[in-house]
Amino acid sequence: MRRAPPLLATILIVTLTTALGGPANAIIDVYPDGWCTVSIVTPVEDPIVEIPLLGQPTLLTVVDEEGLPLNYTLKGDTVVVDAEVADEINVTYETQSLTYKRGLVWSLNVSTTSYSLVSIRLMGDPDVVGLSKTPVSIREGPSYLELTLEPPFTLDYVYTAPPREGRVGDNLPYYLLALLPALAMVLFLLSKRSRNRRFELDSTDMRILSSLAEGEKSLSDIREELSLPKTTAWRRVRRLEGKGLVEVERTKSGSLVRLSKLGKDALKDRGHIR
Questions:
Q1: What is the rounded radius of gyration, in angstroms, for the C-alpha atoms of the chain?
Q2: Which option is the CATH number for 6-159: 1.20.120, 3.90.75, 1.10.1740, 2.60.40?
Q3: How far is the CA of 208 from the CAs of 100, 220, 223, 265, in angstroms?
Q4: What's the number of CA atoms in the CB half-sphere (13 Å) around residue 195?
Q5: How far apart are CA 100 and CA 156, in angstroms?
């Protein structure tokens, strides 16, 4: 990456000697085409958590600290997450609504006041040509320039590096054609492995499935019957739901769990039901 221009170099000297330190509340990866990847990590203190979003989200994912999906609803520019058994919420999405371009100059606008700090990672080889306020910190990564600022703020930058000859992207279709046979073989092996591992169940999984063979039960009934901690029971049920072995109906009074057809087949294969 090239050296920052004089404006940025001056800011760098000042901020590195007076930086406040500490992680940002949100991270925005900004790419040369204007698309941004937003990552937000929030600790859970209440069963229902409202998280303000930066920009209009596409490809939104909301998972817990173990990567398991969480139920959520979108309300305007806020995502409301059901985090009853999570310790941490990880929100990730793509957006193009934070940036715009005039001529050669790109601008990034973060207007929220919901976060104390936001880190911007400018990917590629940009020159920062304007900032609405002094960054809290600046650091240079292997392929990006990261600036942490207190919102709201605007940031202007340009990509002035000439295109490199012989980039992989120029010949990407040819590389893909050459890799198709190998890719097909990898997909086949992964599919076979996935089928073999799909129904790997331990004794706790089988106890839950066997309990549901008697009929539909609430999550609290399963916990009491099997003497399982609340968090363990819910994570196990969600994992079984992800494998397609149980179906979960979420009602106002709680979650109802029942065996799916695949769950019944799994019990039959192991001789637990006829």
A1: 25
A2: 2.60.40
A3: 52, 12, 9, 14
A4: 5
A5: 10
Token pair listed for 228: 């399982």
Residue for token digits 């940009």? 126
Give the tokens for residue 245.
Answer: 């072995």
pLDDT digits (tens, 9 = 90+) for 12-21: 433 333 333 3
> How many residues are there in the chain?
274
CA distance 165 to 167: 6
Nearest to 29 by CA among 45, 15, 40, 16: 40
pLDDT tens-place string over residues 186-229: 666 555 554 444 556 788 888 898 989 888 998 889 988 988 88
What type of residue is 243?
Answer: K
Cis peptide before 5 (omega within 30 of 0): no
Q: Which residue has the tokens 């400018």?
A: 122
Domain map (residue ranges) of the chain: 6-159, 203-268
- Domain 203-268: CATH class, spelled out: mainly alpha
Model confidence at 44, in pLDDT bands (50, 70, 90)? confident
**First-last CA distance in the chain:** 66
Exposure b/e, 133-148, CB count within 10 A at least 16 = b: eebbbbeeeeebbbbb
Cis check for the bond before 152: say yes or no (omega within 30 of 0): yes
